[in-house]
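This section describes the prediction task in plain terms. A model, or a person checking by hand, is given the sequence of a single protein chain and must write out its three-dimensional structure as a string of tokens. No templates, partner chains or ligands are provided. The sample shown here is typical of the held-out split.
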Amino acid sequence: MSLPNPGDAAPAFRMTADDGQLVSTESLSGSRFVFYFYPKDDTPGCTRQACSLRDNWEQVLATGAEVFGVSPDSVASHARFRAKYELPYRLLSDEGHAVAEAFGVWVEKTFLGKSYMGTERTTFVIGPDGRIEHVLPRVKPEEHVGRLLELLAA
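The expected answer:
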């Protein structure tokens, strides 16, 4: 499945957060929010990306958008990762990667000559009307927070 474009309705979703709460299309209706999809908890790039958001949290918070990290890791893994790095935002478990597939970020990847399926690091800003406002495809961990803040301020 391909990435949704700005203006498209965001795919429906239901995921459990690291705090055990259910987060769904319905629970976020009327809110502006960010889904940043990342490959795996506690890996170098994903940790840099997560901590960069944490370190710039006041600026992110000032935009009024709620931020969620999304990966196929378990709720327990997310809880450990969030606690270890004192992340101020919730992490959503997409075990089975159905939401990543719906958003077009479950893709074939290659590492050391081997192909496998995994999450492509991509961020979506979703408006209160449930439509995609912005897409940051294949974003680099070091560039993520700066680019996101630009989009949220626009």
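For orientation: The mean pLDDT is 95.
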